[in-house]
Amino acid sequence: MFDNFPLWPARAAAGAGNVDALYIFLVALSGFMCLAIFTMMLVFATQYRRRRGVEAEQIEGSPALEITWSIIPLGIFMVIFLWGAVIYFHERTPPRGAAEVYVVAKQWMWKLQHQEGQREINELHVPVGRDVKLIMTSQDVIHSFYIPAFRIKQDVLPGRYTTAWFRATKPGTYHLFCSQYCGTMHSGMIGQVVVMEPAQYQAWLSGGGTTGSLTASGESLFQQLGCTTCHRADTQGRGPSLAGIFGKPVQLEDGRTVVADENYIRESILSPSAKIVSGFKPIMPVFQGLIGEEQLNALVAYIKSLSPAPSGAAGANAKSQNP
Amino acid sequence: MATAAVTAEREHYLNKEYGIRSWLLTTDHKRIALLYLISITFFFFVGGFFALLIRLELLTPAGDLVQADTYNKLFTMHGQVMIFFFLIPSIPAVLGNFLVPLMIGAKDLAFPRINLLSWYLYVIAGAIYVHCILTGGVDTGWTFYTPFSTAFSNTKVIEAGIAIFIAGFSSILTGLNFVVTIHRMRAPGMTWSRLPLFIWAHYATSIIQLLGTPVLAITLLLVVFERAFNLGIFDPTRGGDPLLFQHLFWFYSHPAVYIMILPAMAVESEIVACFTRKRIFGYNFVAMSSIAIAVFGFLVWAHHMFVAGISLYSALIFSILSYLVAVPSAIKVFNWTATMYRGSISFTTPMLYAFGFIGLFTMGGLTGLFLACLGIDVHVHDTYFVIAHFHYIMVGGAVMGYLGGMHFWWPKISGRMYPEGWGRLAALLVFVGFNLTFFPQFILGYMGMPRRYWQYPPEFQVLNVLSTAGSTILAVGYVLPMIYFLWSMRYGKIAEDNPWGAAGLEWKTSSPPPTFNFEEEPEVTWEAYNYEEIPAPAEEPVER
Questions:
Q1: What ipTM was assigned to the predicted interfaces of this complex?
Q2: What are chain B's domains?
Q3: Which of A7, B65, B84, B472 lies deepest, with the highest CB count within 10 Å?
């Protein structure tokens, strides 16, 4: 029966152990506090139960005691805060050179595409030991990408990218859940993450046809849509050159400076006039509504590949970079 | 027998007038409290019925009892009914309405007609919401997250939104009435430092109701505008920002948790003082912690959004602020416990609820530390861990407080005693049933079971079965008081004016009180909780 009655989630990613350690610390702390308070109540309730002829002793209070039991918990809270903040900081900072997987969520399925071009639905295959960065967006409502065994979760929003990352450590098959309520079949928007040994993963990659890598399809889209007429590799185009911009600050016409991350590229394609690069005119056509999320992902992947590694553009070379 | 005959003849607020008009047009805060009592009890059982259906569906991993869409409506309407139509009005509008004027020595609230208006607004809101339920219901989750609610749901979002919008004004008016009453209507000698802690906590609650609820009203109006008139506010395809909705929604809905729990803390202080026969340990700290909770409570809303896509640095700030609000709550628990030291403790039904409250609120509060912790929240956010945590606060805390208060003041409200044996049994059933229902959900949550799941992987079944079993015990524990309270109105022992030997002005008038509360305006010359001057009841004033 206990096969069907686990009390602890599988632990299959780097960092999951840190979350568990903090959790166990908090459980122990809470257990101790509950025990202390319940014991005190129990002792007082028996010791000072109402007896004939025994009056309660009126005690006004004690500022010293009040300050003690305010400061000590506050100190403990700050330790918990810092510990949790360190873990969170780590979880929210993808390592450079991570392999990238683009995720598009829709009611009620997960569509994933690897850099190498493999597409998957409700399944994600990853090798043990590789850093994987998820670049996620939604076609409709808010979803949330949740892998309990990795202790990671990130809401997936329409109209922008959110990211998450992990490094799987243990081969196996794990749950992928949508954890943000998204309508009728919210509980059916589940899938699995298959963690494989690198050799098996290579075999999986080479099996099954693919239409070429994500950057390659992005490049042909870039040609088809005529982007190349203005965004030329040299600096003579009517639009800014896109070579080497990813991850770098960009000077805008209104004086602001923004970092060219995935969301910036996305916005610049969909509504170009939102942020105009200094020295250029707002002449680019709007692509909002003209291209789908997956085409957009391919374009973003291609534009990122124009910037040299390791600024995140692992591109099609991910395999060779990660043993 | 002679006393009974005298009491029966004495005029009080219940027998002064008869007939439906005398109730529906009353401006007596005590009668309005009873009108609220009847209406919120109705909604409590509606919400409880939805909860039972949810628990029955979750008995098996497959979605089999109801359709997916029905299930989504059930948890949505369970949440909205329980929060907006039961928990938020529960203690303030029933016990607060009844007791605030009595406790400060006033004839009524400052604005008796506005008090009646607030009940009518509540009833109109409730009627619209019931109509919404009967004609198809709503499936957005109680949180109305956009763009699902504004662009994708095919259910009665606008109707539910308008109902809650109106209910919000009922809440605002109650808060306004309390603030003015507490400032302006205190009896001579009733200084701020002599106020019962019940009043302090209700004052803090009222401030939140006044400042927070308008933001919810605006937010719901924007949802209605986007849905009905295609105005782009939250939906990204119309140029809106879905996270803006979450910020606005939680700016009210996190403080709303304190609207629910502060009044329960108010009740807790009165009960603990009475049944330990002591002044509350650290009166000033308990009073000020209520105000601190009300203030800090407004600064922590984005801890509901740690995985929603907010920036790393704002997450850090909201995490640390969330720990600050935990301190005043801890202060209260320590002070109640310390009050028991060298007390004279009796184990009546209200006191059993008070023990239960401290236990469950402590567990709810401690698990709040997990959720405020960024590293843990990422994993447990939107799982059953969250469900268990907030039920420990809102049901373990607020409902235990409400039931404890109802038993404590029932002699004053009805003039009758409830049957003590049944009362203790019900308190025990509620405590056991509650823990069996919600403790397994902490484990489920850490294992990763997401909330709002109609079907789930089979390895989660055993814990779900335990939870469902607990919910049936809990249901019995909730139905029992309703039965014996009704029974006691006719057959219960006649209550004395002060059956518990309690301090507090409300016990210095008759049970039930006359229409204008006191025969002559009281003058307060003593501090709050002067238990050394009040004789303990000679014998337990209750039926065995």
A1: 0.92
A2: 2-533 (1.20.210.10)
A3: B84
* Residue reference for tokens 């009166």: B283
Question: pLDDT digits over B219-249, tens only?
Answer: 999 999 999 999 999 999 998 999 999 999 9
Q: How far apart are CA A277 and CA A263, in angstroms?
A: 15
pLDDT in tens, B457-475: 999 999 999 999 999 999 9
Q: What is the pTM of this model?
A: 0.91
Task: State how far residue A107 is from chain B, nearest Cα, in angstroms.
Answer: 10
Is the preceding omega at residue A108 within 30 degrees of 0, hence cis? yes
> How far away is chain A from the Cα of B88, in angstroms, using its nearest Cα?
24
Interface A-B, measured as beta-carbon pairs within 8 A, has a size of 275
Report which of B320, B317, B301, B366 is spatially closest to residue A78, judged by C-alpha positions: B320
Q: Which residue type sits at A180?
A: Q
SS in 3 state form for B399-436? HHHHHHHHHHHHHHHHCECCCHHHHHHHHHHHHHHHHH
Q: Do A183 and B456 make contact, defined as CB atoms within 8 angstroms? A: no
Which chain B residues are within 8 Å of A35, Cβ to Cβ?
none
β-bridge partners, A33: none
Beta carbons within 10 angstroms of residue B107's beta carbon: 16
Cis check for the bond before B23: say yes or no (omega within 30 of 0): no
Mean pLDDT, rounded, of chain A: 88
In angstroms, the CA B127 to CA B41 distance is: 14
DSSP classification of residue A289? T
For tokens 């005590």, what's the residue?
A: B30
Q: A178 to chain B, minimum CA–CA distance in Å? A: 8
Query: How many angstroms separate the Cα of B382 from the Cα of each of A30, B146, B385?
Result: 21, 16, 8
**Closest alpha carbon to A136 in A297, A246, A303:** A297
Beta strand A131-138 with A162-167 is antiparallel
Verify cis geometry, omega within 30 degrees of 0, for the bond prior to B522. Answer: no
3-state SS, one letter per residue, for B66-112: CCHHHHHHHHHHHHHHHHHHHHHHHHHHHHHHHHHHHHHCCCCCCCH
Is there a contact between B342 and A59 if contact means CB atoms under 8 Å apart? yes
Phi, psi of A247 (to 5 degrees): 85, 0
- B358:A84 CB<8 A: no
Of A5, A77, A151, the CB nearest to B378: A151
Please list the residues that pair with A252 across neighbouring strands: A277
At the second CATH level, the architecture of A99-206 is: Sandwich (2.60)
Cross-chain CB nearest to A158 (options B147, B344, B448): B147
Instruction: Report strand pairing: A143-147 vs A172-178.
Output: antiparallel
The beta-carbon neighbor of B443 closest among A1, A7, A140 is A7
